[in-house]
Amino acid sequence: MKLRNLWLAMAFVFGICAAYAQNGSPKREFRGAWIQCVNGQFQGVPAEQIKKTLESQLDNLKGAGINAIIFQVRAEADALYKSPYEPWSRFLTGVQGKAPSPVWDPLQFMVEECHKRDMEIHAWINPYRAKTKGTTALSPLHPYNKHPEWFVEYAGQLYFDPGLPESRKYICKIVRDIVTRYDIDAIHMDDYFYPYPNAGEKFPDDLSFAAYGRGFTDRGDWRRDNVNVLIKEIHETVRAAKPWVKFGVSPFGIYRNKKSNPNGSNTNGLQNYDDLYADVLLWVNNGWVDYNIPQIYWEIGHPAADYETLIRWWAKNAAARPLYIGQDVVRTVTKPDLMNPNQSQIPAKYNLQRSLPAVQGSCQWYAAAVVENKGNYRDMLANKYHKYPALWPASPFMDDETPKKVRKLKPVWTADGYILFWTAPKAKHEMDEAKHYVVYRFLRKEKVNLDDPSHIVAITHNEFYKLPYEDGKTKYRYVVTALDRLHNESKPVSKKIKL
Which of 36, 216, 226, 296 is least surrounded by CB atoms within 10 angstroms? Predict the structure, then answer.
C-alpha cells in the first residue's frame, strides 16, 4: 500500500510537470469561476430572464477558457434546487419558501447547461449558516422551525451549532441528497466554517461543549475537531453516494501567521486555524478533500497578506491534493504591477501561478467580473492565458484507471460537411465510461505530441467532430482520446485525412 501511494504521488507530480508544453501553456489546468446567489442577482427575477442570463454568462465564460463552474445552491439552509428537506431560497424568489413560478430547478438547469458546454459543475453549499442578516422571516419548512435546539445566534445570524452530532448528521443528509439526485462533478464549500469573529461577542457553544466535549479541555481544539469530523463525514458521504464526485473547499487565504506558528506564512491577518477553526492542512494531508482553493484575494505587495508570499506558502504546504488559487478579479485589475505600474497585476500573478508546479489552476471571483471584462481580464484569459484548451486535472487518488481507446474512427462526407466519427469504448463500470473526448490535429510530417495543448481542437462529449475542410490536398493526422469522469485519458487512435 505504501509503495502504491508513493507511486501515485510520483505520477501525480510527474503529470503536473509534463502537462506544460514548450509554449508555456498547461495541458491540464483547473479554470473555474464562482457564480454566487447571495448578491441578489437572481432574486425575484423571472425564470426565463435568469436562464438567459446564465446561458449568456456560460457562453462568455466558455469563450474565455473557463472549464468549471462553482454554482451557489445553498446559502442559508435553503435551496436553489428542488429540495425535499429545505425551503426555496429567497435569493431566488425573494421570499424564503416561495417556489418559483413556473417551477424550475436552477441546479438541474446548470448541470445540463454546463455539461452541454463541456464544463464541470460544482454545487456550492454553505454548511453551517442558517440565516443571514437580510432574511427577515424563515419559512415553516426551514430546519430551524423544526429543530430550534440545533441552532445558535451569533452576530445577528443563525448557525447550526457545529458541536452537535445532529448538525453534522443533517448536513451530511443534505449533501447525500444533492449528490444522489444531480449529475454534479463536485460538492464545494467556501470559507464559512465557524463564523468570522464579531468583536466583543462570544460564540454561544457552552451547552454543546458541556454535553459533547469528548474530553477536550481546550475549546479551540474542540471546535477544530468538530469541523474536522464534519469534513471527514462529508467526504465519506460523497464517496459512498458516487465515487467519482469530488469534494472541495475554498478556505480563507491565510492558514496561520508565522507569529502564531513557525510553520505559518509571513503574514498578519485573520487565520483559518485560530479564528475560523478550520484546519485545512489536516484535511488536505489526510485526503478528506479532493481539491483546495485558498482565497488569495490580495495583491502582490499587500503589507499584511502579500499574494506572492501566500501562493508560495500554499504551494509548499498543501500539495497533497490538487491546489488551485482563488483569484479576485477586481483587485487584480485595479492594483498596479510593482515592476511596471502602467499595467495591472494579471501578468505577474499568472506568471507566478504557472511557475509553481504544485499549483494546478485557479478560480475567478467572481464570474460576472470576468464576463464584464473588468480591466481587460477576460481578454487576457481568452487571448493569452487560456489561449489553448485545457483538460481538467486528474485525480489519481480517486481513480487512475484509464478508459479504453475509442473505436471505429473514420471520416464521413455528410450533408453537413466532412465529419470525423468514432464509437465510445466499451466499459465494464461507470468509472470506466468515456464522458469526454479530446481531438488533436497535426500536420502530415509533424511529430505527434499529445502534451502540447496547442494541438487540441476540441474537448467534447459528442462522438463526432466537424472537420474544417480546405482544398482536399493537405494531409492532416487527427488523434482522438477518451476521458472518463475523473479525466483519465485513454491511449490515442489516429487517422490521416486530406482536407
Answer: 216
Give the mean model confidence (pLDDT) for residues 153-161: 98
Cα 372-376-380 angle, rounded to 5 deg: 115
- Smallest CA-to-CA distance from 132 within 234, 208, 39 is with 39
**pTM of the predicted protein model:** 0.95
Residue 120 pairs in a beta bridge with 68
- Cα 205 to Cα 87, 195, 217, 385: the distances in Å are 26, 12, 14, 47
Query: What are the cell numbers at 74?
Result: 445553498
Residue (of 86, 98, 85, 83) closest to 44 by Cα position: 98
What's the pLDDT tens digit per position in 322-342? 999 999 999 999 999 999 999
pLDDT tens sequence across 352-384: 999 999 999 999 999 999 999 999 999 999 999
Question: Which residues does 17 contact at the CB level (< 8 Å), separation at least 6?
Answer: 357
Q: In what order do the strands lie in the sheet with 417-423?
A: 407-414, 417-423, 464-466
